[in-house]
Specification:
Helix content is about 40%, strand content about 15%. It has helices at about 10-30, 35-50, 60-70, 90-95, 115-120, 140-150, 205-215, 240-270, 300-310, 340-345, 360-375; strands spanning about 55, 80, 100-105, 125-130, 155, 165, 175, 180-185, 200-205, 220-225, 225, 275, 290-295, 335, 350. Strand 6 and strand 7 (about 175) form a beta hairpin. The protein binds pyridoxal-5'-phosphate.
Amino acid sequence: MKIEMVDLKGQYVHIQQEVDEAVLSVIREAQFINGPQVGSFANEFSEYLDGAQVISCANGTDALQIAMMALDLKPGDEIIVPSFTYVATAEVIGLLQLKPVMVDVDPDSFNITADTIRTAITSKTKAIVPVHLFGQCADMEPILALAKEKGLYVIEDTAQAIGASYTFSDGTVKKAGTIGHIGCTSFFPSKNLGCYGDGGAIYTMDSNLADRLRMIANHGQVKKYVHKYIGVNSRLDTLQAAILRIKLRHLDTYSTARNAAAEKYDSIFNGVEGLVIPKRQSNSSHVFHQYTIKVTGGRRDELKKYLEQAGIPAMIYYPIPLNEQEAYQTIGRVVGDLSITKDLCSSVLSIPMHTELTDDQIKFITDSILSFFKS
Ligand SMILES: *Cc1c(COP(=O)(O)O)cnc(C)c1O
């Protein structure tokens, strides 16, 4: 049986006709940059995001960089990030001569919490970047309250959580990326809303910030040949926008399919000794960008190898804490011992999770994992 970590071909087959027609029409119209599909996608995505303004850009890393560039920060200002995340989150901070301050995460949600963030705040702190890791929102209500108290910006890295939503204690529901000041996302092919190349977006409910973000993404330009800011050249191309318009219509169905697979995994793994299933937070939905188990007893690498021999891919997101990366030894600051991150790096394993998983595939994967733990 052929098992993939992410089955993009299988997904394409179901939308082939729509995608082929859209791609061909872009080629025939030959407006490869800033064609009408780019604006249409931004409008449709804005509607999906309950009215947030959407600025599309070239990738998720650029989205984070553009967000940081829009905030009047100066070299040495501190930005709080999780030590357990993809490098892009901290990389753009380093690139802009800001200081990434790395804090530990919650062992169940894999996300940063207001309590740990509070211990990291100094007079130089300017912003917090919660990363909604693996598809579930960080606990945003206390984070927003802390940010307000201290006058900090909140930039959400929602590259893994497009479509997730967070419920406040008063019942208000907000989509990931529209909760803080700015949301940043990626349309990398394997992301939950992936295009067929690179792409990204920045969103905000604040129209002043939106204007500035839009200018920065486009050479800091107010109008043609008039430049108000130092910006970058970061664009989503028309072909990708045309593909994203189609996939956006399927996004909620895709999230449902991921949740159905996750529930099957949960029900089979629940109670298996040596394995901890991902914990659901009560105030966030989960869009399962990854289904990540924790393997106890130091057997993670052994399980990964066992699965590979059975033809089942599994990935370690992430094997090395950010603070242990060579590039971050000198530019960053670490708060606490980051022992949870260290534990997670040696115990997490993400198993196949995508929109096309069949019951037979799930049975093959879970049978194999169960037989490992019985042996
Ligand atoms: C994928 C990802 C990014 C970067 O997105 P790119 O489009 O690859 O630049 C940033 N942060 C997180 C958490 C991601 O998963």
